[in-house]
Amino acid sequence: MTPPQRQRRSPGQPPAVPPPADTPPKEGELRNPERLFVIGGEAGGERAADLDLVTLIVARADPPVSATPEQAAVLRLCAAPLSVAELSAYLSLPYSVVAVLLTDLLAAELVQARAPIVRQKVADRSLLEAVMHGLQKL
Amino acid sequence: MDFKSSDTIPGPRTEDRLPHTAEAAVKIVIVGGFGVGKTTMVGSVSEIRPLTTEETMTQAGIGIDDNFGSASKTATTVAMDFGRISITDQLVLYLFGTPGQERFWFLWNGLFEGALGAVVLVDTRRLEVSFDVMGRLEERGVPFVVAVNSFPDAPRYPVAELRTALDLPEEIPILDCDVRRRASSRDVLMTLMRFLHSLAMKGALT
């Protein structure tokens, strides 16, 4: 029995899915759908997009009296470092809603964000070695 | 917003809290067709009970409802199971599994872009369901390895034959695994890390 055959693709090749033809695209929806915070238009000056699913969030203060229930919950959960993904899971809120919440809390300096290490063109070998070492202990 | 009182939200269990020294995180994404074992793999190596995060997106511009010629937008929720492995007191690894409709995974901005790499989990009974996702990883330049989750009744192909069928270059690792076993899932992740390391060595030389 022969397995089905695939064809390799290369970087920068146009996506297989064609953009819709008959509806005139509005601004910003040429290819990607909007995130919730764009639709809501709630995000302030800072860009929520700077957060990643694995950005670690740590509370810098106790919830102020003025905090909304959502903000208070975030601050309580982040007494120890917690990723944005974990926050989203524990709060049962979509990622982009949590990103908006965090953008406000970052602006108010109530939380600190520890940025993730993202893939570089040339990966950091010592980082990869550290991960391998950690996995070996599993 | 219908929101539970902050006092009733269960947070991480005490033993699931990260140390304050945790400085940075990295992520690996596990992709593959429905039922191929992505969530099982996340669960078998994760130090925490796997959690689910989700994102709400609109379908406008994805080209799914073309036939209807409708300009209306439908909100779609994409869920993502994930687990965590503490590498050191400073470094944390997150593993994301991608259940559901694969056409939406790549609209989740930053999920793949920042990832160290990906594991493509395949089931030889339905090899073709992983073709599209491999192509999309290639388009985005996300390095990946292929792990064949061995189901008892699945056809067994020699690696060379699989490599030809999947049209993969010689350097991309293809390995068998049983994702229910922690050691096997760990070996898959180690294979990915060694592959990424070899790419880094090559990149440093050129």
TrEMBL record, chain A:
Region ranges (Disordered) = 1-32
Q: Which domain of life is it from?
A: Bacteria
Query: Where is there biased composition of kind Pro residues?
Result: 12-23
Name of this protein: DUF742 domain-containing protein
Q: InterPro entries under this entry?
A: DUF742
Automatic annotation (TrEMBL), chain B:
Q: Which UniProt keywords apply?
A: GTP-binding, Hydrolase, Nucleotide-binding
Q: Which domain of life is it from?
A: Bacteria
Q: Does the keyword Nucleotide-binding apply?
A: yes
SUPFAM superfamilies assigned: P-loop containing nucleoside triphosphate hydrolases
The answer to keyword Signal applying to this record is no
* Listed Pfam families: ATP_bind_1 (PF03029)
The entry assigns this protein to a family as follows: Belongs to the GPN-loop GTPase family.
State the name under which the record lists this protein: ATP/GTP-binding protein
Task: Give the species this sequence originates from.
Answer: Streptomyces viridiviolaceus
